[in-house]
Amino acid sequence: MYEYLTGVVTFINPYYIVVEANGIGYQIALGNPYRYSSQMNKEVKIYVHQVIREDAHLLYGFGSLEEKQLFLRLVSVSGIGPKSALAIMASDDHSGLIHAVESGDVTYLTKFPGVGKKTAQQMILDLKGKFGELSIETPFNLFDETALQDATALSEAMEALSALGYSEREVKRVEKQLKEVESQTTDEYLRQALKLMMKK
């Protein structure tokens, strides 16, 4: 099992990034691949979790060991798979997530894509009191303030929301709100969109 990969980011799309290490390109699924926009063609260190299925070998990536540990706790819950866990973690409000579990806030937890009342209750049942000393703030900062900002950034962010499992109606509602803000990077648009999703 892999712990982390160190390599160069060579490709980014709404679902994953490709990190090339020793001549091999590793496809790594992330909650927000556009965090790495400013790291394109640069070396990064990504913590990974490998899932082996009958039809695929998959890698899920994280910016820190704490993020990876949070992911592993989430996928231990019945009804939450790796894709759902990434979508839950994409909002970056990890302390809010932990607080919601500890306080039994079902309403907050059902705001995540693919999490219904039953799954939210299962999360509380399985995870309450099990976060221990897990200290998670905004996972890491890789943002380049001078990154190119153009019209494609918003559409990429909306595509990333769809990749996380949000419905077309939810995406369009948020897109309308984001069109009113100043031009930003894809990552910034996506972060704002996820915050808006949690307020619905």
Topology:
Blueprint: E1 4-12, E2 16-21, E3 24-29, E4 43-52, E5 57-62, H1 65-75, H2 82-89, H3 94-103, H4 106-109, H5 117-127, H6 152-164, H7 168-178, H8 186-199
Parallel strand pairs: 3-5
Antiparallel strand pairs: 1-2, 1-4, 2-3, 4-5
Helix pairs in contact: 1-2, 3-5, 6-7, 6-8, 7-8
Compose a concise summary of this entry:
With 200 residues, the chain is of the alpha+beta class. The protein has helices spanning 65-75, 82-89, 94-103, 106-109, 117-127, 152-164, 168-178, 186-199; strands at 4-12, 16-21, 24-29, 43-52, 57-62.
Structure description:
- There is one protein chain.
- With about 200 residues, the protein is of the alpha+beta class.
- It has helices at about 65-75, 80-90, 95-105, 105-110, 115-125, 150-165, 170-180, 185-200, and strands at about 5-10, 15-20, 25-30, 45-50, 55-60.
- The chain has a five-stranded mixed barrel with strand order 1-2-3-5-4.
- A hairpin with a 4-residue loop joins β4 (about 45-50) and β5 (about 55-60).
- α1 packs across α2 (about 80-90), α6 packs antiparallel against α7 and α6 (about 150-165) packs across α8 (about 185-200).
- The longest helix is centred in the C-terminal third of the chain and has 14 residues, at about 185-200.
- The protein is globular, with a radius of gyration of 17 Å.
- The protein starts with a strand and ends with a helix.
